[in-house]
Amino acid sequence: MGDSAPGEQSSSTAENPERIRLRDALSSRTPRDANELARRSGLAVGRVQSLLGLLALEGVVGQTSDGWRRIA
């Protein structure tokens, strides 16, 4: 009861669609600022900044003087 079928993710482990959109907007080579990432992802700048902080804590993104880039 309440168990997920094999191969399905539970709602607690499913990836947030906003995080996916932001990660897709990031480059591993070219740093991008929050405004550019918001434009590319379709998210609000404030939401992008919040998600970047979370992704940085997880080691997924890094910040340089020129902006943010994907590192993992």
Task: Outline the fold blueprint.
Layout: H1 17-25, H2 34-41, H3 45-57, E1 61-64, E2 67-70
Antiparallel strand pairs: 1-2
Helix pairs in contact: 1-2, 2-3
Keywords:
alpha+beta, two-stranded antiparallel ribbon, 42% helix, 11% strand, WH-like_DNA-bd_sf, WH_DNA-bd_sf, DprA_WH
Tell me about this structure.
It contains three helices and two strands. The chain has helices at about 15-25, 35-40, 45-55, and strands spanning about 60-65, 65-70. The longest helix has 13 residues, at about 45-55. The protein has a domain at about 30-70. The model has no long low-confidence stretch (mean pLDDT about 90). Strands 1-2 form a two-stranded antiparallel ribbon. It has about 70 residues and is an alpha+beta fold.
